[in-house]
């Protein structure tokens, strides 16, 4: 029988004890769990960034994987802990929109996680990763029934969908993520971008190449990344710094003709 997989995505970093404590709670309740770190380097409080990272990762995991996503600036407030079921997998997270990209891509069912018997007691006002999400993930991975965690929820919080439109022969979108190399990831999908077109961003006119190695050192370039969307990089440099761009910057690419 395959081991249960529980993934962790947080903005906790790794210099403090928080991630280790969450793993300790999970393993204390489910010693056979396989705990996988997706990342703990989400920018503090960056809900949309956490959502992007999980949305890029989940599809590579087996069915019944439990994903714990804790990017939670509203911890201790009235925001709800939730459980989403999508693509045959489970997502435990605060109801702050961090799962918006999952909702947009997959058919889903969402529950409010209200069953306090699954929490560590007393529940801290500031560390629900330890007291709510980690124990709920362990119990879910050991076979707890979904309905036992809480009732169905019809109105989960959704973040605004990033801009995407066609205008005068251009596909217009925006930067939705900046990775650790300074590469700018957009929401312009491969199938709608002309392969022989150009990319324009903040006054820069960039060639569309197969990879960043197709231009000279320190030169900017656009290419389709591994996630299937248009990306902008500077070879051996940081595009965000060299081009002075960040999340939300408008990007235009020649639209593919139908």
Average pLDDT, to the nearest integer?
A: 94
Which structural class fits the helix and strand makeup? alpha+beta
Spatial strand order of the main sheet: 8-9-13-12-11-10-14
Q: Spell out the CATH superfamily of the largest domain.
A: S-adenosyl-l-methionine hydroxide adenosyltransferase, N-terminal
Distance between the termini: 47 Å
Question: Which term fits the overall shape?
Answer: elongated
What pattern of helices and strands is seen along the backbone? EHEHEEEHEHHEEEEEEEHE
Kindly summarize this structure in a few lines.
The chain is of the alpha+beta class and 258 residues long.
List keywords for this structure.
Elongation Factor Tu (Ef-tu), domain 3; 2 domains; Rossmann fold; 6 helices; six-stranded mixed β-sheet; 14 strands; single chain; 258 residues; elongated; alpha+beta; seven-stranded mixed β-barrel
